[in-house]
Structure formats: structure tokens, C-alpha cells
Amino acid sequence: MTRKSNMPQLKTSWGRINKHVLDGIHGIQTPRPLYAESAYFVPSSRKQLALDPAKLKIVWMASTHAAMMSAITASYNESTDLACCVIAAQERENEAFHPAHIPLDTRIPIVGEIVHMVSVDEMSANEAASPKDQSGAGQVLELYRRICIRRGSVTGVYPNGFGQYRWPCFTTSIPTTGGMSGGFVYVPRDNETIAACGIVCADLDPYQSKTDLTQCGCSVIGCSWPALALRLPESIPAPTNTVTKSLLELAQMGYIPEPVGGIARFELETLENGDFRLHRH
Fold first, then answer.
1. Is the dihedral of CA 237, 242, 246, 248 positive or negative?
2. What is the spatial distance between Cα 257 and Cα 180, in angstroms, rounded to a whole number?
3. Of all helices (H) and strands (E), which one includes residue 6?
4. Which sequence spans correspond to the domains of the chain?
5. pLDDT per residue over 225-239, tens digit each?
6. What is the per-residue pLDDT across 50-103, written as a single tens digit (0 to 9) for each?
7. 104 membership: H or E segment, kind and range
8. How far is CA 79 from CA 37, 157, 222, 231, in A?
9. Under CATH, which number does the domain 114-189+196-223 receive?
């Protein structure tokens, strides 16, 4: 989904992703943790993801070409497996960047409803040319992903969480595999824009369901509506100590399109410690 930007001639887009994906990236960036897993208190600065373009790149792929993206900012919290990033193409690739617009859907599907899952799988990476020096200049990588669209039904709805997945979610009969996290789920409706009502979070599938089409899978899908509490800067690029707004507030201000399903039933409560809580009425 695109948003307004005051960055001249530079296209930006924000996208939804899983927080556990960002946690995995942070683990790669800091392979030697500076604290024990049993540590009772860890400064938040030790757990922050590095967005420096030299340490993080995002690959955007279209039907005929791809581009390397930089993450301008990222937002997530500890209570859900949802996150969002604002990304921008590198200057020389800016003209080739044409993001698809998939809006949020704040509605919750019902048990038995047919849903479609759109994700990527079967990733492979090969080095076509080695770097010329330690900076990595001259390295050429060949990346392969496959777009996967699957159909299934909703098998359960859990407004207060499901097992260790302690956020609003639902389960589907669609089997998933590693690497499909962050894919989106939508309810196909006639004459209506495709909109993401959920994000793929986890795979509880029996092994047989991945190869036997007669076996149902069990995937955990995080509901999209809690993402309205995630915060982004009011302006891009974001100056130091910039004011941030929740996606709900940005939609109310017209900075981003209003999600399918509306936002009238949502209210953002600011707590005494500066945190916030999203209420759904």
C-alpha cells in the first residue's frame, strides 16, 4: 500500500510482514548475542533491528524484473506477530519500482468461509559473480521465488489467541511451508477489491498434507486489523525525533487509504507508560 511522501521523486511503499521474520533478520545481524537468553532485563537498543542499507536489503520482485529496496523505517510490537516497513527503491532502480496495492481488510472471516492464500515459496539463491572486495561490490546474486496461490477454508476463529499465538487469529485448511510467512490471506468476493484480512504466521500442518492433496493442513493466520495500532512517521524521510502516528490515525487523516471493512469500530487508547491499546467495538 502506498502512502504520501515528501521525498521528491522517490517512490515509497509500506508493506506488512511478520515480526518473527524481523526477529530472524536481527539474529543474522547479531550472530553473537551480547546477553544470555535467561537475562531478566535487556535494553531495547540491544534488540533493535539495524535498517542501515549496508546491513539490510529487501528484494522486490515483479513479473519481469526485480529491484533492491532499502527499509526507511519498521514498526512492530511485542503483542502480535505483525509488523510493517516503509521501503524505497535505490535511486537507480526507482523508475522500475511499481508496487501492487493490496489494502488491509479489517473484517474477520467466519468458520467454513472460503479463503485464498497468496505467498512465495521455493526460494533458492546462487552466486553468479563473486565480490571484488570486502565491501561486496561486484557481487551478483541470482534469486528464485515462486508465487503460490492456494485455496481452502477457515477452520477456526480465535479473537483472543490460539495456543502460544496470543493475538487475534484464525486457522485455515491450507498447508504452508517454510518461507511463506508474511503471505496474505483474503476472502474472494465478487466485484470487490482483493484485501488482506490476515497474514500467514505459523504452520501446524501434518507432514502428509504437504504432499497428499486428500489431507487438510492447518495454518495459523494473524488477523490484519491489529496492524492499525502500528506506528509510522508522519513524513518520509523521517527526521530525528519525528512524530509518529498509528495506521489508524494515518487512515483517519487521509495519508493512507482506509482499509476495506472500515475503521469506525476501532479506537486507540494511549496508556500511562506511553504504550497504546487498540479496541475493536
1. negative
2. 26
3. none
4. 12-103+226-280, 114-189+196-223
5. 999 998 888 777 666
6. 777 877 888 887 777 777 888 888 888 777 888 888 888 877 777 777 777 889
7. none
8. 19, 18, 12, 14
9. 2.40.10
